[in-house]
Amino acid sequence: MMMRQLKTVTLIFITVSISLSVNFAKAQKLHTTQNLSPKQKSIISIASLTAKGDLINLKPALESGLESGLTVNETKEVLVHLYAYCGFPRSLRGLQTFMEVLEERKIRGVIDELGREASPIQEDGNKYERGKKIIGELTQIPQPDSLTGYSAFAPVIDTFLKKHLFADIFERDVLAYPERQLVTISVLSTVGRVEPMLRSHLAICLNVGLTSDQLNEFISEIKPILGRKKTKAAKAVLDEVLNRQ
Predict the structure, then answer these.
(1) Which long-range contacts (CB under 8 A, 24 or more apart) does 83-91 make?
(2) Where is the Carboxymuconolactone decarboxylase-like domain positioned along the sequence (predicted)?
């Protein structure tokens, strides 16, 4: 009888131990930090260095991006996207620098993957309304019918934003929303003194699937480019956004 009871207790102990081990393993898996991918890190560096106008360091960053898996068309899309946030001159200089990088790599015998082109945009419906719908998807806030703030003060800028930035640019599918947002927050952090816009786009990052850990990693990635002062300012805005979650 004693032997049978001992076997029963031992069996229960083993079963409980296995169950605890499995649950612990599941818990560890759930809490595993999802890091930014090498491609995403390259997007951050490329966008920030281009916005800063640091073409010397942009060249190795562009090389690194290609080596990390960015296609030629994805890289071009990064450089095109950022013009909306830091202007044509920076974007064009970035593209010219990228052309130099590709030519130098070609001379060395490196043939980089071109990647796919953007899919044709369905021009159904009013472009302004399409842009308005995309803003609603990104912000997860219904867009009002009446204009307020700067949009009411200068309605033409509201038209440009909705019809061009959010329809023409954000509808292009070469880059997904998370990657476009990484470009945007990289440029805004680099430009500096645009806290309301940076705050909005950091919140959008969370809406489109980037995590708080990834956004904190973004700050670490961009710090060597920004320097202490601008990094501190960007981190303060990020902390404010995360504390509201």
Answers:
(1) 84/164, 84/165, 84/169, 85/51, 85/183, 85/184, 85/187, 85/188, 85/191, 86/50, 86/51, 86/187, 86/190, 86/191, 90/50, 90/51, 90/53, 91/50
(2) 33-95, 160-240
Rounded average pLDDT over 64-77: 98
Q: How far apart are CA 153 and CA 146, in angstroms?
A: 12
Q: CA torsion sign, 35 to 45 to 170 to 150?
A: positive
Could you tell me if residue 2 is inside a domain? Answer: no
Q: How far apart are CA 163 and CA 146, in angstroms?
A: 16
State the pTM of this model.
0.86
Q: How far apart are CA 125 and CA 141, in angstroms?
A: 21
Q: Give the total number of structural domains in the chain.
A: 1
Residue 15 has a pLDDT of 41
106 is in which domain, residue-wise? 38-115+173-243
pLDDT band at 123 (very low <50, low <70, confident <90, very high): confident
* 111 belongs to a structural domain: yes
Instruction: Tell me if 207 sits within 8 A of 140, measured CB to CB.
Output: yes
